[in-house]
Amino acid sequence: MAFACTSPARPTLLADDARVRITRWDFEPGATTGWHEHAMNYAIVFVTDGLMSIDVDGVVTEVSMRAGEAYSRPAGIRHDVKNAGTAPMSFVEVEMK
């Protein structure tokens, strides 16, 4: 299943060195990252409260996150992320090299 995208999420690269790549992602309501797969293990830390939908191989999970909450995932999972809420949503992604 592909999300209907009203606009793409906006990535801002904050740091990229020998150990980590840190990117801030900003989503307007309905915005998506588009399908992608991480080559590195990564962690996400929410900057704002948000309602996020994650599509992994056609299985969609909707998660309500609070600012400051975090989760991590291993590399190699193809997915698409959508702001399913009615307010802008932001998180910081830290990829471990």
Fold and architecture overview:
This is Cupin. It holds the Pfam family Cupin_2. Residues 24-94 form the Cupin type-2 domain. It is built from no helices and 8 strands. With 97 residues, it is mainly beta. The radius of gyration is 13 Å and the shape is globular. The mean pLDDT is 94. The N and C termini lie far apart (30 Å). The strands form 2 sheets. A 5-stranded antiparallel sheet has the order 1-2-8-3-6, with no helix packed on it. Strands 5-4-7 form a 3-stranded antiparallel sheet, with no helix packed on it.
List the strand order in the largest sheet: 1-2-8-3-6
* Contiguous uncertain segments of 5+ residues: none
Q: Proportion of β residues?
A: over 45%
Characterize the overall form: globular
Instruction: Kindly report how far apart the N and C termini lie.
Output: 30 Å
CATH second-level architecture: Sandwich
Mean pLDDT: 94
Main beta sheet: strand number and arrangement? 5 strands, antiparallel
| Count of beta strands | 8
If you consult CATH, what is the topology?
Jelly Rolls
- CATH fourth-tier homologous superfamily: Jelly Rolls
Topology as H/E string? EEEEEEEE
| Structural category | mainly beta
Name the CATH class.
Answer: Mainly Beta
Helix count from the secondary structure assignment: 0
* Count of individual domains: 1
**Gyration radius over CA:** 13 Å
Bin the helical content.
under 10%
